[in-house]
Write a structure and sequence with these properties.
- The protein is an alpha/beta fold and 383 residues long.
- It has 2 domains: 5-279, Queuine tRNA-ribosyltransferase-like (TIM Barrel); 286-382, no CATH class.
- 44% of the residues lie in helices and 18% in strands.
- The chain has helices at 48-54, 64-69, 73-78, 82-85, 98-103, 130-140, 158-185, 189-192, 206-217, 235-246, 263-271, 281-287, 319-323, 326-335, 338-365, 368-382, and strands spanning 5-11, 18-24, 27-31, 33-35, 59-63, 91-95, 108-111, 114-118, 125-128, 144-146, 195-197, 199-200, 224-226, 255-257, 276-278, 290-293, 296-299.
- The strands form 5 sheets. The protein has a 5-stranded parallel β-sheet. A 4-stranded parallel β-sheet has the order 5-6-10-11. A 3-stranded antiparallel β-sheet has the order 1-2-3.
- Strand 1 (5-11) and strand 2 form a beta hairpin.
- Helix 15 packs antiparallel against helix 16.
- The longest helix is centred in the middle third of the chain and has 28 residues, at 158-185.
- The protein is globular, with a radius of gyration of 21 Å.
Length: 383
Amino acid sequence: MPRIGFEVVAECPQTRARAGLLHTPHGVVETPVFMPVGTQGTVKGLTQRDLAEELGVAILLANTYHLYLRPGHELIRNMGGLHRFMSWPHAILTDSGGYQVFSLKALRKIDDRGVVFQSHLDGDLHTFTPESTVDVQIALGSDILMALDECPEYPVSHESARVSMHRTVRWARQANEHYRRAVEATADESAARQALFPIVQGSMFADLRRECARALVDLDAEGYAIGGLSVGEPRPLSLQMVEATEDILPRARPRYAMGVGMPAELAEYVARGVDMMDCVLPTRNARNGYLFTSTGRVIIKHARYKDDQRPVDGNCNCYTCSTYSRAYLRHLFLSGEILYAVLATRHNIRRYLDIMREIRHAIRSGTFPDYLRCARSASLDAG
C-alpha cells in the first residue's frame, strides 16, 4: 500500500506544470509547494504556530545530518518522533544528510560503502551508509525520507560525474531494499506509513541525468527528487537538468527539485514539471537584510529607507507588512535586534508561499502561460 498518495488535479496544456494534492500521514499538501527549511527542527525566527496558523505552511523540511548529531535520532524517537518533539502537526520531509556531509570536503571520505565524516561540532568520526540514513529517518518519523546520494561539486568532469552517479544509483537500491525490509518488519504503524524518495544525480550532464533517472524509475518509488542543483552552476543549467530528467520520471509521482530557488525561478521549475521545492534563501536572506517583495528586492540597510513609512511590500498583508514600516525594520536591523529577524523571516516566507499560491491558482484556472510570461517580464525588469 502506498505510504503517500499523489493526484494531479490540473495540468497546463502549454507547459509541464501541474497542480496536485500530496496525501501524507499528517495532512494533504497542495502542490506545487515550497517547503520552508527547518534544519534543526525549527525554522529560524518563527514559531510553529506562526508557520501553521498564520502562514499556512503544510510541510517543512528538516535535516538528518544535524538532527543525527544533535540531539540524536534515538532521543527524538524516544520523545515520540520529530513531529511530537518539535510540536509540528503537519508533514515533514527529511533529507538524507548527504548534501551536508559532502559539503564537508576536508572532513569526509567517500567509498562505495558510504561516507565517513567528522562532526563539525566536536570532530568525532561518524559513518553514513544508505541503510543507516534510512534507519535514522525512520527514527525521526518524517513523512518523506530521502535516500543517501552523492552530490558532486561543480564543475566536475564527465567521468567523475558518471562514477558518482552510478554510486548514487547503487546507494538508492540499497536504501530502497533496506527501507522495504524495515517497513515489513516493524510493528510501528507510523513507520509503515513513511515514504522514501531516491535522488537523481549526474552533475550538469544531461546524458547522465537521464541514465540516472531511468535506473531510479525501476525502484517504483513513491516520489523522486532531482538533486545536485544550486551547487554553483549557472542558473540556466539547473533548469536544463530538470528538463533532461522530467519526461523520464513517472507523471503519477511527485517530483522534488532540491535546494531551489530565487522567487523568479519558482514558476520556471513548475513549468518544467516540478511539484516540490525547498531553499534556505527566504530565511537566510531575511536575516541578512534582504527582503523579497512583489515589486523586487528591498535591501533594508540602505539609507533610502531610514525615514520610509511604507510597509516592506504594499501588496502583502502579512503581520510584518500590516504593522511595521521600512524605517522601523531598518532601525531594528542596524541595531542588531532579534525582532528584525523574526519580522523579516515572517515576510519572506509569506512571499514565497504567496508565489506558490498564485502559481497553483494559475494552473487550475488555465492561465499559467500568462502568469509565466508576466513573471519572466518582471524578472527582466528587476534585472
